[in-house]
Amino acid sequence: MQERINQLEGLVLDLMEQQRTTSSTPVRSLPEAPPAPTPVDDAMSDRNSSWPSGPELEQRTVTAESRASPSPSDYGSIRIRESGVSYVGSSHWAAILDSIADLRDHFDEEEAECPAPASLGFYPGQSVPKKLTAGLPRPRLLYGWPVLDSARTVASMLESIPPRQVVDRLVARYFNDLHMATGVIHQSKFLREYNEFWKSPRSTPIVWIGLLFGIISLSTQVQHFFLAAASDNPTPSSSHAPNNPAMVDMFRENIVTCLNLGHYTNGGSFVLEAMILYFMVEVFPRREVNIGVWVLVGNIVQVATHMGYHRDAAHFSNITPFSGEMRRRIWAMIVQIDFGISTQMGLPRLIRESQTNTGEPRNLLDSDFDESTVELPPSRPETEATPILYAISKVRIFSVGVKIADASTDPGPHSHDNVLELDKRIDEVRAALPPCMRWEGLSASLAVPPLALIQKIWLEMCVQRLKIVLHKKILVPTSGQVHQQWSQYGYSRSVCLEAAIKILEFHQLVDEETRDVDGRLYQARCRASTALTHEFLLATSILCFYLGSQGSRVAEQSTQLQALEMNPPSIGKIKEVLRASQLIWLRLSAGSKEARKAAAAVQYVLNSQSSTDPEDSSLSFDDMTISVPQDPAGGGSPCFSGSEFVDLASGYNLASGGFESTVCDAPFP
């Protein structure tokens, strides 16, 4: 051991010297200290809680509470404490020290004698001396919330929880009906914790209470959706039912308060689960995904990275098999959120594959493993449609999607050979989807329940969307090189147009099957009417852009396509699907700015194509009035000015493949 210490001593001293140049922290405080506590801890009493710990506090051994990975630090080091979970890369000096067992044990003992101040504030009812919290700066963006009396704050949050009979119904709805954030919460483990909570609410970890508020909020929001959609539905029988919008807002605020009280930036048990549910709560009622949601996703990614979720748990012996599998599930959800929101916002992704090695979760039911599992069972066959299999399928599609998304946001040029290679990868991923997750047509899915149908449709639309984003940059040839580019890039152009047509065919199918009570998707209309909207807008815009950019030359160039390409989509087919989608956008236009723009754009390009007067196409958008067909569902027939097409074109970002802001109540089903 002494020889090993001597070999590393020089490198460690060099790294420590670098730390001294940027920090005044004493040398003995080598392990990363958690963020400073806040004045809210003043109202928390100093006691040990027997409440069950979350997955991040479960360890293979019961000796040191902050035991770090004893293996060589090639993958970095994860330190698990009551105050939080932190990760440092393999080049960090703390990771090198953690590879020296004697030094690691020394620091573990030192931390046990002098617990970190933040660890004292993890449970409601605990306190921290004021001298530990005085004068310590805190980022206002993360902790700029006023709390004058934390004990009263915790008490008021507990009092705001509805009676157990009501909460039982909401929890049951979450696990049985919602299917949101699948796999993030282990059902049987949560229900055990839920029973413990009702036995002793004030000894429950504050972040877990925030997690419960997340479940209550999501279930209540879905309840409001269906009550609003069907006026003949009975209102909740209990007078304590959270059917007041102000109460829903209070639940959402309580999630934030619980996360702040639990010092969520430290990491720790239940933090990421609560943050993900809070993200869902914020996104569900929104008609537009704005920049604030993207910033929230950034917070989730940063906290997860700080906790080492971007590294597979198999490389760290201090993480149990149960915790390791839950970390894979949670990371898979974070990857989906990052890809979905970044793509919708037209912004670069926050996660880089070159910096992660977390494996995909196994195809297991929650009943297949728990905290006592010594070795994870093998994955179930992918012919078994477990709840987590859908998430696994999405992650596999996104493994190609992230490369395409990165290429679409890269301002530099890309070779057409690279485009064709990625196109081949899309086809391979689609072919490798589990049979129960692959779209085969509505008539071939007669025994498939509504939610599973929506999932199949979503996965197929993801594939088609990737085709659009990959090939869209060469949808229209540049001036002066028309014939050459038609010949060279004809395949890409056809693939892009065909993908857009397929998505708009789904637009018609989803609309038909959700409008009537006997429709195949009526029971899943909450998912169908929100999460798919962004893809429908994208496909509409692509076809409008194609027709609008060609003008009177479209027929001539269509003839060139027939000669140079294999089975290109006809102009008549493009117009047909656009007209069908236009009727749907008109029906939604009263409550959606983007739907109104889409309907106006379709009307403009169709009018331009059918006009025989060459001067018609040169009319000012602002001077044109676009007449639209009567909505077959009833109601007035609104008129749009041609400027709506300009707004649509400016809102659509061809470089990113989507609208800057879109109608989307959820990032994905």
TrEMBL record:
It comes from Zalerion maritima. GO terms for biological process: DNA-templated transcription. This is Fungal-specific transcription factor protein. Residues 18-27, 60-74 have a biased composition (Polar residues). One of its GO terms (molecular function) is DNA binding. Residues 293-367 form the Xylanolytic transcriptional activator regulatory domain. It is found in: Nucleus. InterPro entries: Sec_Metabolite_Reg, XnlR_reg_dom. GO terms for cellular component: nucleus. The keyword Nucleus applies. Residues 16-76, 356-381 are annotated as: Disordered. Keywords: Nucleus. Pfam families: Fungal_trans.
